User: What shape does this take?
Amino acid sequence: MIIKIKCKNSDNKCCKCNEKAVFTSPNLCKEHFINSIECKVSQTIDKYNLISKDDKLVIAASGGKDSLTLLHIVHKIHKDIIVLAVDEGIRGYREHTLKRLKEFCKERDIQLRIYSYKDEMGKTLDEYLSKNKIMPCTLCGTFRRYLINKYAKKLDGTKLLTGHNLDDEAQAFLMNLFTSQLKLSARQGLKTGIISNEGFIPRIKPLYFCSEREIKAYTFLKGWNLTFDECPHATDSFRGYMRDILNEYSIINKTAKINLVNNFLKILPKLKENIEKNIKSYPILSCKNCGEPCSTETCSACSFQKALV
Ligand code: SF4
Ligand code: ZN
Assistant: This one.
């Protein structure tokens, strides 16, 4: 689907320059809207000290709207960047987004490394799923986190950037509240992770305060003409339910998502503090098979590879 942004009212004017607005709440013309998103990302980076000038940034990208927006904006303000992508081997889906990502990086002369499940984990995701009864996202998420962390370190990255946006964060917080797993939210925030350990590369989310609606509008107004396809294995109906609830309520309360996330940020330090106290009694080990950090003898990625046919 290609999103078309239209003003509800053709008399709407940009609140900055009086040109015709192409985005509402706030009303902005094309130029001021694009500028507002780019400013919002740079202000987030500055305010929360997400990036320093000596950082070597590894951007985890898929070729979707969030990662392309992240890549485009961050590349304007920082040049030491390498893009890391994972090819899960999902036919009819991933090859299209990776093609787009390759073109995007080539146009901007940005280094891109792609690591595939086939080469790294023995089989494509489709092959694993055809022979084993397992939730696709459980396996896929474990392999992806594993490869991204492993190769971001090998590429000498000092920070790993992900394209999580305001909607992702609000949905995740609500999901943890609704399932009484608030402690899991200690891992959320602009800088993820609870304790620092050399086995884990610090992860940051510069699009944290940009909504999904803003990012879709940004990519459209930049003329990228993206299609917003969904992975055919997407089974996370709980997240979809949270997305629908939030989107529906946001029609009558336009600041619902940002209020939720801002209030979450107020309690986050307390959540982290509580978890830190307990986590100290669980040392981080190295996987006896691959050496990657884990909490048991063997990491989850190696355990899956061993258990699956
Ligand atoms: Fe992998 Fe699930 Fe995402 Fe598809 S939706 S790419 S299976 S984590
Ligand atoms: Zn391992």
